[in-house]
Amino acid sequence: MNTEAELLSAVCKNKDISTLLADNVDDIFTSHADIWNSLKTYYYKFKAVPEVGILMERHKDFEPVETKAQTGYYLDKLKNEYLTNRLKSIIIQSGSSLKEDAASRVLADMQSKLAGLSKFTNNVRDIDVTDLEAAENHFLAVKDRSVAMGGSPGILTGFDAIDKAYPTGMAPGHLIVAIGWPGKGKTCIYTMLGSGLFRASDLSKGDINIDDFRSWGKKKFENKNSFILISNEGTAEVTPATVQGKIDQHKPDLVILDYHQLFNDNKRSHSEVERNRNISREFKLLAVANNIPVIDITAATADDISDQDEPPMMSQVAWSKAIEYDADMAMAIHRYPGTNMIEVVSRKNRHGQEFDFYLDWDINRGIIKPIYENLPSMKNDSQNN
Question: What is the 3-state secondary structure (H, E, C) of 186-233?
Answer without folding.
Answer: HHHHHHHHHCCCCCHHHHHHCCCCHHHHHHHHHHHHCCCCCCCCCCCC
